[in-house]
Design a protein that fits this description.
The structure is a homodimer. By secondary structure, the first copy, chain A, is of the alpha/beta class. Chain A is built from nine helices and 15 strands. A six-stranded parallel β-sheet of chain A has the order 9-8-7-10-11-13. Chain A has a three-stranded antiparallel β-sheet with strand order 1-2-6, with no helix packed on it. The first copy, chain A, has a three-stranded mixed β-sheet with strand order 3-4-5, with no helix packed on it. In chain A, helix 3 packs across helix 4. Strand 12 of chain A pairs antiparallel with strand 12 of chain B, so a sheet runs across the interface.
């Protein structure tokens, strides 16, 4: 987005200035700041507001800071029993739950999640809650191992033999992911795109028509089910954390987060 | 598909050899010959049969011939009141009706059809039956004029100012169509792909994710509603015909059909 400003859009914080009923309370916050005036806001599609600002991404400073300003309407109270280290996953977990707003999964449906990054592992756990038969294919044995105690199947990409699934979630974050995903979705199946890879893809679209594939773009999601899943311990997020840095060590933290295979890095002001 | 054989997959014919109740009857026929044994056939997805032959396209000779062999299960009787010149549109009109199997259009939904070829004009008419607000954008004034007596809006591409629609049907048959279509679909809108352009596209997929677009591949469709629409004169197909050739003039006919702006060319054995 060519953004210039304070980055960061996943946070948990304490309200220091705002409505009395929120002051001193722990909150998480939705990242799309909507105008409440445009056609999309009126149609209850605020996350697609045509004039939106997006925290740390578009026209609004983000959360790699001691303080951040967030519209009251975007805030959600954090249940007491949730640790900061769990609540901070609400935003990416909501993005995983967005898939369940878009498609109806049935127990036994075969679902493939491509990518074992943070988003891939969260998507797999959210989708598994439907009783679907979920497989995650990734490049990092140590990340796939994090799913060991779940009922989610895992495979290393190099050792995996492509087969066809009812639903494929593309969460690789790489330019090759789309092509790989197209090869793994059955005729009349659904391919859910989670990666916002900026480069142009060389995509043959004819197979999409011939096999009548549905491709769904999927971005930010609803916070309420994500918070509920965290509170009820229906998903496991603490093993996804690699290290916590002080905000003053922010540059080291960003460098660490950029290492291949790194899990979630947290910053604490 | 690298097909080598007799081309052609849109036809109306008379049964000369087959079950007694069909002999001498006029029929049209579905083009996917399914195996009846694979997983897709068992799931009632015969048009996606993994071992299918496709008339004039894949492993089965087509209809640019005096005689063609078609499985009995693929045949549909042609109502008496339909002329050959109307019935021959059943297959492409069925492909247009396939869209209505895939999406639910409501009266007032804003629908854009990109492309004023035969398929574009048929799609526009089929979709208009839902009461949706349909606009066709194309390159040929004389083709767009064919829709004059319908309630379908038309515009020439060069004079058209892009705006956003709830549904966009890409029926240009050209490699640029996808990009154009992406620019004309609103956030959370649906883009229906009808063109099977063989070349690879350079497609930026990030906007698809950010705007949560649904992309639907759409191919062959159901014959029954197409035949009914033809019989009840709910769509107008005769103006789409440009010329009829004898089969012996087939090469001239194919050359004519390939001219820019040509409407439907018919062959009669």
């Amino acid at each position: 987005m060519g953004f210039c400003g304070v980055p960061g859009h996943e946070f948990v914080g304490t309200v220091t200035d705002g409505p009395k009923h929120l002051e001193g309370k722990r909150v998480v916050g939705e990242i799309n700041f909507s105008c409440e005036r445009c056609e999309f806001c009126h149609r209850d599609l605020r996350r697609h507001c045509a004039a939106r600002k997006v925290m740390g991404i578009l026209d609004a400073d983000g959360v790699f800071a001691e303080y951040v300003a967030v519209p009251v309407a975007n805030l959600h109270l954090v249940p007491e029993k949730l640790a900061d280290e769990e609540a901070v996953f609400t935003e990416p977990l909501a993005a995983a739950f967005e898939i369940l707003e878009q498609v109806q999964l049935e127990p036994g449906d075969e679902v493939l999640v491509l990518g074992d990054g943070k988003l891939g592992l969260l998507c797999a756990q959210a989708l598994k809650l439907t009783g679907a038969d979920v497989t995650v294919v990734g490049k990092h044995a140590e990340k796939l191992k994090l799913l060991k105690r779940s009922l989610i199947r895992t495979a290393l990409l190099d050792e995996w033999k492509v087969r066809q699934f009812d639903f494929v979630v593309e969460a690789t974050g790489s330019a090759d992911g789309f092509q790989l995903a197209m090869g793994a979705v059955r005729p009349r199946g659904t391919l859910i795109l989670k990666s916002t890879v900026a480069s142009k893809h060389h995509v043959p679209l004819a197979p999409l028509v011939i096999n009548e594939i549905t491709v769904l773009g999927s971005r930010c999601g609803p916070f309420a089910p994500a918070l509920e899943a965290l509170e009820k311990r229906m998903v496991s997020v603490l093993p996804l954390i690699e290290k916590e840095y002080a905000l003053s060590q922010g540059l080291d933290a960003v460098a660490h987060a950029g290492r291949s295979g790194a899990r979630k890095i947290l910053l604490r002001p």
